[in-house]
Amino acid sequence: MVASNPLFSGRWTLKKFNATVINDIWPEVLFFSAVATAVAVVTNLGYHNLAIGSTLLTVLGTVLGLVISFRTSSAYERYQDGRKMWTNISTATRNLGQLIWIHVPLGREDKGLQRKQTNLESIIEKKSILNLLQAFPVAVKHFLRAEQGVYYEDLYPLISFLPRYANDQAHESDRLPLWHTHPEDDDEEVREKEPRQPVNHERGETLVDNSKPSSRSSSRLGPKKRKDNFDPEAALPDVESEHPLRPARDPPKTTVYDFIPLLRFFRWVVRVLLKKARPGEARHRKYKAHVESNIPLEISLFLANYTAFLMRSGLVQPAVATALQGNLGVLQDTLSNLERICNTPLPFAYQAHLRMSLWLYLLFLPFQVVSTMKWITIPGTAFASFLLLGFLEIGQEIENPFNYDLNDLDLDYFCLDIQRQLHEITAHTNPDPSEFIFSPMNQPFAPADKRSAAQLVALGENYVTPENDAPAGTNSIRRTLVRSWRDVDKFTRKAY
Questions:
Q1: pTM for this model (two decimals)
Q2: pLDDT tens, 47-82?
Q3: Is the predicted pLDDT of residue 285 greater than 70, yes or no?
């Protein structure tokens, strides 16, 4: 999501020009301006009168305006729905993290399904589950961007400890859907870029040579990190992978075709001619059979399995168990809604008909206004085409707000924000309330009584107001609280 002006925030580059729609519509604006120029020259210089009646302009202009407005509004509604869904993910993830970290007990004894477990083992267990919670929005991000598999720098380190096989035989055919690789991971070019790490298939573990320094950079695949200090993957576990890890964020490279769309047609023509000229050299990549797993769904299954274990073991109260199930349901519903937004574009027939209608309207526009606007027909047509085509292109760009365009939602920022929140939750030490409530730094009855909690406790049942104008005990406490309310009401209201 563009939080500030993308053109002028940070160092300006030509790539930031893509935040506008000018680079997409300027060929069309130039074409209709050229038509308007030709009409104005022929008519105003007296070669031939090309003017036609403007009745059609009035009728079609109103209809096209309404349709384009509907197109842009529907696209922005999808954009807003996508942002709301990510807010739901953030809220549900934060709630689950708090419930697990605070309500799941540490010290455990042998009882039913629960074995004896030390405090350290319990903390490791809960922190690992919170890492899975952190992995869920990351998996959703890659899922929405059609990036298959789990071998990414920001995803694999968080889930690498999950089981890989359906049984102890560790046969390739028994690999769980989560760990099925995408065909691109088996491509020869990928294997040539980075050597594979040796893997112990019996245990599903990577054999790391301890004589060499362990670093995620040895298994990275893709562009190098930026030169500044921003490297969020450095905060993740340092785990080696049997497959090269793809970048956490891999937007398509900006080429000259993004600024001059007309060249795409010539590129297509060249490709067609080359294929006809050299038909025997065409290559057809053969992929192995594979399973495209729904990674967020797989992660939610492990989370549901953990909550079921807590309930079967009696480690959480029924109200907490209900809250855990409810927030897991929110994650599932949100994933379905995001998939709906991503995979339900506006029908192509509607888009094509709207664009062709607008082209015809702009094509006949100079013929209808040249008799009254004269030479102003040229800039007038250019402005009208820029305005209408711009709104149409904006609707098409924000229709799917989950990609890498500068106007899309910043999914990477959302994932990092959730990561920070979960780590903040795990920094909470679950102290006994008595350890901080009765501190000398706490003044619970302020502003009427600014004595510390320790001083108030020392008074015992003989509490009296600072003014000593009420009998000791509960009556004094109530009078102090009423005075606090009166002081707050007085000090916090402006005098108008």
A1: 0.79
A2: 888 878 777 777 788 888 888 888 888 888 999 999
A3: no
**pLDDT for the residue numbered 369:** 86
Per-residue pLDDT tens over the stretch 347-362: 888 888 888 888 888 9
Strand 205-206 versus strand 199-200 pairing type = antiparallel
Averaged pLDDT of the chain: 80
